[in-house]
Automatic annotation (TrEMBL):
Keywords assigned by UniProt, alphabetized: Lyase
Keyword field contains Cytoplasm: no
UniProt name for this protein: Short-chain-enoyl-CoA hydratase
PROSITE patterns: ENOYL_COA_HYDRATASE (PS00166)
Protein family per UniProt: Belongs to the enoyl-CoA hydratase/isomerase family.
Organism: Anaeroselena agilis
InterPro entries listed in its UniProt record: ClpP/crotonase-like_dom_sf, Enoyl-CoA_hyd/isom_CS, Enoyl-CoA_hydra/iso, Enoyl-CoA_hydra_C
Broad EC category: lyase
EC number of this enzyme: 4.2.1.150
Length: 261
């Protein structure tokens, strides 16, 4: 039996697909589900067989319709703060997984669901996806990183508009403002996510990893610090077999055979 009650976890050919599986509550994130995500992120981080992670939601209606409102409603101030801190730690862990993480957004990505999608490196949306941060309708701001990640992804003005109005936007609008990387037909969503995963897996694992590290570590500093950091990870790659192989393959006009070493 699976260790996870609210997640389905499949690992095939280097691609791990995590499905948030509480379809009756539109995959809302309660404490158990967040605990399972936390545990699974730790496991994935240590698993060299996992090359790319895809996160999606069970059913055809929701990716994740938010943090579980019935769980949160009775919380006091200290518990609310702890809940936000815990959720932020889990999403930070997902954001900083060594593997690239793709959100396959199959339906509603609201509140904590939009925040989970934004903690992923890349968001592919089904035409049926809807994004939004409706927390201001509930008397709270986003608490799992939404105020920060949305503003970084789409800019301050658009983020404030989405947060203040609680408007839900469709996939086309999410794509237009840079929240979704691409939009595909619902039936093509998982294939599109897997095709992107396979393309990423064909690149140098070291190169990809260092791109992620440089962006995640560098972007929240000033430009000078960020580019200095980039030079460090760039230099580090010259001590790897991937760099020697990638450049040799180019010069020898052949396909590279990357080992991720
Ligand atoms: N929490 C708990 N249950 C939910 C949630 C949720 N976020 N979303 C949906 N459900 C449940 C519904 O209660 C309903 O249950 P039941 O069948 O037992 O009545 C079931 O899922 C199906 O939902 P609906 O009947 O409402 O389906 P509709 O198709 O009519 O509507 C919507 C779909 C528009 C997605 C609607 O369900 C909705 O508005 N959901 C809530 C969306 C929302 O407000 N999300 C944000 C939550 S707050 C949040 O995420 C904050 C994150 C940070 C927390 C930090 C805390 C400190």
């Amino acid at each position: 039996m699976s260790d996870y009650q609210n997640l389905i976890f499949e690992n095939q050919d280097g691609i791990s697909v995590i499905t948030i599986n509480r379809p009756k509550a539109l995959n809302a994130l309660n404490a158990d589900t967040m605990g399972e995500l936390d545990r699974l992120a730790d496991t994935l981080a240590k698993d060299p067989a996992v090359k790319v992670v895809i996160i999606t939601g069970a059913g055809d209606k929701a990716f994740v319709a938010g943090a579980d409102i019935s769980y949160m409603q009775p919380l006091g101030a200290v518990e609310g703060r702890e809940w936000a801190k815990f959720g932020q730690a889990v999403f930070n862990k997902i954001e900083n997984l060594p593997q690239p993480v793709i959100a396959a957004v199959n339906g509603f990505a609201l509140g904590g669901g939009c925040e989970l999608a934004m903690a992923c490196d890349i968001r592919i949306a089904s035409e049926k996806a809807k994004f939004g941060q409706p927390e201001s309708t509930l008397g709270i701001p986003p608490g799992f990183g939404g105020t920060q990640r949305l503003a970084r992804l789409v800019g301050k003005g658009r983020a404030k508009e989405l947060l203040f109005t609680a408007d839900m936007i469709d996939a086309a609008e999410a794509y237009r403002i840079g929240l979704a990387n691409k939009v595909v037909a619902p039936e093509e969503l998982m294939d599109a996510a897997k095709a992107m995963a396979q393309k990423i897996m064909s690149r140098s694992p070291i190169g990809v990893r260092m791109c992620k590290v440089a962006i995640n570590e560098g972007l929240d500093t000033d430009l000078e610090t960020g580019v200095a950091y980039e030079a460090e990870v760039f230099g580090l790659c010259f001590a790897t077999a991937d760099q020697k192989e990638g450049m040799a393959a180019f010069l020898e006009k052949r396909k590279p055979n990357f080992t991720g070493k």
